From TrEMBL:
The gene is LOC109720730. InterPro entries: TBL (IPR029962), TBL_C (IPR026057). Belongs to the PC-esterase family. TBL subfamily. Pfam families: PC-Esterase. GO terms for molecular function: O-acetyltransferase activity. This is Protein ESKIMO 1-like. It comes from the Eukaryota. Residues 22-313 form the Trichome birefringence-like C-terminal domain. GO terms for cellular component: Golgi apparatus.
Amino acid sequence: MRNGRRDDAFQKWRWQPRRCDLPRFDAKALLEKLRGKRLMFVGDSLNRNQWESMVCLLQWVAPWDKKTLVKNGSLNVFTLQEYNATVEFYWAPFLVESNSDDPTIHSIQNRIIMPTSIAKHAANWKGVDYLIFNTYIWWMNTPRMKVLRGSFDKGSTKYDEIDRPVAYRRVLKTWARWVEKNVDLRKTMVFFMSSSPIHIKSAGWGNPNGIKCALETTPVANRTKPLELGTDWRLFAVAAETARWLNRRGTPVHFVNITALSEVRKDAHTSVHTLRQGKLLTPEQQANPAMYADCIHWCLPGVPDTWNEFLYAQIISGPRKQ
């Protein structure tokens, strides 16, 4: 709102699940659950968006001189000293190694992945008490993914192009095998967040004359037919199937379904009131929403708070970990 947004209704909507109630988010209760523990978000900028939400939801409990934020490359660590607890974010937009792994210089159009190489990133995830993974938006640049033959470390440059869902399945198989082999279920809870939708094509919610999500101030009201926002439900299905596969094998993973509920929130993106490459949009850029409106990331307070309410409900009702 300091960046010029005038309406504030986007902060006030709440999600009401069918046939149940979400518990009210209680920061102190969650911090007692996190006492002496680490909670880490792993993934892309949407998971960073959710990490920022979680930090905002928790930080007011701690005195100003009892909390710190340290950013060190791919890892951001927010520490609440009175609880000896950390809320962390680790940048890995594809979970596996890619040419987009630099946490600051990663706006690469020609994205290349190594779908079986996870160990370098995953070394930073071991021993964490609550792991929240995602990977989606970085897959949506092209219909086919470039898969490296060989290794970045060895200077390999040749790649194959593979259909997006096939490559996604290969990556999540690698991730699932890592979870199965490395996560101590007596200590750690694992979550996988489903796809965060975008609102770039306004015709998808019945406003063909709109300019992406710019000027939208209310959620989608008419839900008589599915929204056509370009969400790749094939990737959603692969992620849900992978979580079920792990659960059948005795490795409980909580698949957190945020996609459909977030699709209706066309009003809740940062739009032209945003940062681009770390800088506020200029007045000239704000006047050109067709080019500059961010209809991927979310305002805070807002939709990611709801996602964290889902996490809160699972964590607070889960078994007490060692």
